[in-house]
Design goal:
Four copies of one chain form a homotetramer.
Chain A (H helix, E strand, L loop, with lengths): L13 H17 L6 E6 L4 E6 L7 H15 L3 H10 L1 H10 L10 E5 L5 E8 L3 H14 L3 E3 L5
Antiparallel strand pairs in A: 1-2, 1-4, 3-4, 3-5
Helix pairs in contact in A: 1-5, 3-4
Chain lengths: 154, 154, 154, 154
Amino acid sequence: MPNPPIGFQHGVTLDQAQRIATTALEEGRRLGLAPLTVVVLDAAGQMKALLKEDGCSLLRPAIAHGKAFGAMGLGFGGRELARRSQGMPGFMNAFSDLAGGAAVPVPGGVLVRDGAGAILGAVGVSGDLSDKDELAAVAGIKAAGLTPDTGDDA
Amino acid sequence: MPNPPIGFQHGVTLDQAQRIATTALEEGRRLGLAPLTVVVLDAAGQMKALLKEDGCSLLRPAIAHGKAFGAMGLGFGGRELARRSQGMPGFMNAFSDLAGGAAVPVPGGVLVRDGAGAILGAVGVSGDLSDKDELAAVAGIKAAGLTPDTGDDA
Amino acid sequence: MPNPPIGFQHGVTLDQAQRIATTALEEGRRLGLAPLTVVVLDAAGQMKALLKEDGCSLLRPAIAHGKAFGAMGLGFGGRELARRSQGMPGFMNAFSDLAGGAAVPVPGGVLVRDGAGAILGAVGVSGDLSDKDELAAVAGIKAAGLTPDTGDDA
Amino acid sequence: MPNPPIGFQHGVTLDQAQRIATTALEEGRRLGLAPLTVVVLDAAGQMKALLKEDGCSLLRPAIAHGKAFGAMGLGFGGRELARRSQGMPGFMNAFSDLAGGAAVPVPGGVLVRDGAGAILGAVGVSGDLSDKDELAAVAGIKAAGLTPDTGDDA
């Protein structure tokens, strides 16, 4: 039998992902937000870290995942996905189906870039209003020394 | 063991499909488009060729496939699908579900016809705005000596 | 707009889940295992915490989830699911389909019980051989002061 | 509207993928194999290139994809997946379901590594006997200056 699998390199590291996730939840507490779930996806769109606060409703993990996965799928932060959902509903409905329902086009899905602009993954937060969810995601990404891309021009 | 399967004849040839795909990407570069994915389906709706440029977001292959598959599914180019998505959203939402999410009703899905009008397959391109994606698909099909059907009257 | 959702009580707490997940990974490192993914599900079968070590292959998160979800689905630890997979393959194949593929009947899926035997959630670990994955899950659950149920009599 | 998506970096490049795919088909012709389909996945498990020879049966693209995706999913070449399918059928049936049917555990799914062992993607070939399909995949990977990992010790 061969050695255990090695060599998969998928962007954001576990250390970075844990820092993002724990900081996002701390920011939610600091701002007095409702209980949050935070999902960190790696560059392959697979889950790297997830934390769900006590009191979250049933599908918060799926919604947080969908925000991050939608961003990875199209290559834009959630604010751009929200604009397209308004302007091109036919396409965005099809995109949702194509993703098996796992693409949620609202703020709170944020791409994670390094200093050179390379995409290392994405963060999705759900639990409060989307604009507030996004604040938590952004705080987490910055705490890890990385650059958030919300889908708005900086 | 029986002989290998032979005799499947599914429209567009591999030579044609490769010509379509490589030309579509060249056209994208010439026009300065974002990184593109191009999918060529044969007359049976199966993938004949796919090429994804470096830098594409995660679901570009699925979106490009969906544009081409939607065109094959209904028998119209993507522009007609987009019109129906506007005018008959109930049917088009059901069509998306029926296709398991693999039908994306926007420009950039283009039927491939021979000189007599027979449908040999379809091309889907995704990466930039849909109208620009379509330019790349059309250039590819013409380079192979075949006739693009975008869903608009010529 | 209504107040944020409160009052969902789903067994394992975030503090416990984080303790379980980080200890499971530490145990994996201590034992020299391949890179692991650990998933902690709450009493509602939703994800409470997930951590994926650097180097994991693409579907480790889905496999770890499936081990834990299979245990929650039938109400037995993964060792009992593995026995049933041997003894009643027809039922277990149907169970896998019924769960949409999200039920993996092998060791490494471990129920989390409190002192009175109540099920607070389940842990799934994937990355090395199943028997070794289970060691990491059990170490995590014990570190949180809870009782692992592997599907074997103690 | 923000600029087009940039920064996705997913292992194997398009140049490498095209070299792999075209060489695999040439090797098939040289060996007199049945018509082949070759799929190249990138490090995110998404399709980078696909070519289907004229005469392939309907699901060759899906089978070739499944061989490559199974290898990416578990982190082993197809020969190791085939061994596990023999030795742990319950797990491998569940793995197939978990992958939505897109994991085919036979030779002809080959991991693509760089000189340092990092996994850049995977290749799947289908059309002839699995052992012969694998020869074509290996030839393609080598022609691109990369290292094939079939799941057997070298």
